[in-house]
Structures are given as C-alpha cells and as structure tokens.
Amino acid sequence: MRQLILAAIFLIACDNDSATEESAAYKMTKRITYNNVIVDVIIDKPAISNPDVLIVFHGTIQSDAEVMTAANTALDEFKNILSRKDMMLVSVAHPQENILFGDNIMQAEAALLWVKNKSNEELAITIGKIFLAGHSQGGYLVTRLNTLYQTNGVIASAPGPLNLVYRCNLEENGEVQPSAPCFRLKNAYGLASTNPGAYFERSLLNFTKGFKSDILFVQGLNDSPIQLYSWPAFKQAIMSCTNCQKSQFVEIAGGHNVLFDPSSNSLAKSEFNNFINSH
Predict the structure, then answer these.
(1) Structure confidence by residue, pLDDT tens digits, 108-145
(2) Do 56 and 87 form a contact (C-beta atoms < 8 A)?
C-alpha cells in the first residue's frame, strides 16, 4: 500500500512539473515546415497552456536581411496595442527578396497551417482560437489568406498594394521612384501598360471575394496618394461581395501606420481589440 501511495504521489508530481513546463512564458524563434515550405516564426507565448493565437505579418522590406527585424517589429507593434495578455503571438518572417510580389503567400499559408495543425504537438500546448493580423504588405497577405482558410477573424491594417497596375504604371512613367516589386514583375511579364492582366492578378483588388472569416480593415485617410487612389474601389468591391463573411472598415485621420500611432490610434486600437474580443 505504501508503495502504491508513493507511486501515485510521484505521478502527480510529474504531472504538475509537466504542466508548469508547458505553461511557462517564453519568446523564441523557430524554423517551421509545412507541406515542404520552410519559414521562420517568432513565438511569444504567455504563461498558459491553452492560448488563443494572433498570427501577425510584417510590411514591406527592401532586403531579406531585414526580415527578422521586421518580424520582431510587427510582433512588438501588435502586442503593444493588444489588450489581452493571454494570447500567444506568432510573427511570420515571410520573405520578399528575389521573388515575384505575392509569391510569399506560400510562406504565409505554411505558417497558418502549421499553427492550425502542428503547433499543438511541436509546442506541447493546446491552441484555442486563431486570428490573423497584418500591416501593409502583411495586410495584403492576411486578406488573401482569408479567401483560402477560415479562422476566428482577420485584421488588415493599410493593406496593399491594392493596384499594381496603377503603381507600376506610375513607375514606368517616371512619376514615382522605382521599386523592386515592379522591377521584378516587369522582368517576368513585361510592362504593366502592355500586360496589365498579369499585374492585376497579383493586386489586392483581385482578392475581394470569398472571405471565409469576418475581417476588419483599418485605413488612415492621410496615407500615401498611391494607396488612397485605389482605396474607394477596393472598399466598394468588398462591400459588394455576396459570398463574404462580415467586413468592417475603420477609416480615421492618420497616415500609413495609424493603427500603431499612439497620438491618433485610440479609435483604431479600440476597434482592433473589440473585434478580437467579440470573436
């Protein structure tokens, strides 16, 4: 009898140690693989073993040497405005250099599916709800992901480029500074003025149907002219969608980073948290 009691105490102690280990808070970088696609993610886990998850995506970078810095910045920016302290954040270090614009949807998709299907086993936790959030090009990626997979909700901050035909035509005409995305698209497809279809296929204006989850868009009304030129058409296309889940728009005075601007983001931050808390 004494041996049985001691064995039971030992098992309880082991279970408690395991639970403590599983619920420890940590921040780490992890290389993940899903369907043979490899991508680095930064995981910021609170001290619970069954967290809801916010997967975040950074904006445009000039070189993939900057990708981990951008992923860390995105994690910090979204964490700073997130009112909940019990959510795990996963920031995706999606590449942008030496690929055609939009092709990093493969890494974005791999990260989402890894969280959905493999993170429980690999992190020894139990995932609850899953939300997506992205800024700028990150907003582009989460909007596209919302046409592919259902989650508990999506937040897109100043998503873009909305219209690569318009953007790259301006560059071809010398009206704005050249950019790497348009340069690579020109090498692959020729000029936007002569092959607009190939450019439009990768524009966010081409991904305004079939949203599988509710989505919140945040847009500063003092953003760049390139962004604001196509914003009304983008918004109207989404509002006209007949096979989309609910879309919500928050348009406020401010620039491209209005969601994270402490001087002007009180409404945007409030709506951001209301969206997550209501889903």
Answers:
(1) 999 999 999 999 999 999 999 999 999 999 999 999 99
(2) no
Q: Is the pTM of this model over 0.85?
A: yes
Chain segment 200-251, per-residue pLDDT in tens: 999 999 999 999 999 999 999 999 999 999 999 999 999 999 999 999 999 9
The structural domains of the chain, ordered by start, are 25-163+203-277 (3.40.50.1820)
For residues 97-111, average pLDDT: 97
Displacement of CA 266 from its chain's centroid (Å): 21
Q: Look at residue 146 and tell me whether its pLDDT is greater than 50.
A: yes
DSSP assignments along the chain, one per residue: -HHHHHHHHHHHHHHHHHHHHHT--EEEEEEEEETTEEEEEEEEE-S-SS-EEEEEE----S-GGGHHHHHHHHHHHHHHH---SSEEEEEE----TTS-TTTTHHHHHHHHHHHHHTHHHHHT-----EEEEEETHHHHHHHHHTTT---SEEEEES---S-HHHHHHHHHTTSS---HHHHHHHHHH--TTT-HHHHHHTSGGG--S---S-EEEEEETTS-HHHHHHHHHHHHHHHT-SS---EEEEEESS-TTGGG-TTT-HHHHHHHHHHHHT-
Contact 213, 154 (CB under 8 A): yes
Q: Which of 40, 46, 56 is nearest to 90 (CA)?
A: 56
